[in-house]
Amino acid sequence: MIEICCGSYEDALAAERGGAARIELNSALALGGLTPSAGCVKLVKEHTGLKVVSMVRPRGAGFCYTEAETEQMFADARELLEAGSDGLAFGFLTEDHRVDLEKTGRMVELIHSYKKEAVFHRAYDCVHDPRAAMESLIALGVDRVLTSGLREKAEEGAGLLKELQETYGSRIQILAGSGVNAGNAKALMEKTGLCQVHSSCKDWRRDVTTSGEYVNYRFAPAPHEDDYDVVSEELVRKLVEKTR
What Pfam families does its record include (predicted)? Predict the structure, then answer.
């Protein structure tokens, strides 16, 4: 299974044209991915055959949320499920870098009440004890975990990814993400035993109105100061072909 990280309806269209079967749908990928709109989910489900896992994340930075943020996340989760999401990606941690059992359990219960998939995202890569965290997620009924093996890139975390797959793969799906592309996906899957990878397949597109004479709305590093990130249909196609 190749999952493409998308930041828009247009990204989703490119992912499908490239041959992807499942996407993680976000907004604000420059912040690591935030909650998409229900309208975006509806468009993707109406006009593609993609399986859509929608992100539930109200802000950037970490995953220890206030009560108000948590309330918003559950409201967003219900709206995204009603809009047709096939699953939700989320993550709740405590200040001591453990899985927040109460909030995670409630989110899993909500998602499963719609008979959809509960996916714990890369908040997992910020826990202090990955094995205890995985046991907790399994006990709570989480269906899948997206992880880079607690390293910046999945290639660097391949050792832990292999251990997680061998130890827990019969009880929970392990999805490798971060730095995965057509050039390394097949080798990573063979090395770890994983059968699922997550990739952004990112390219850049120019918007000349990003900068005015005295102001700018830039967020990307040089040489992409006036660009925004998009999913490349070509890169998706290459990734799908390389992992067959």
Answer: CutC
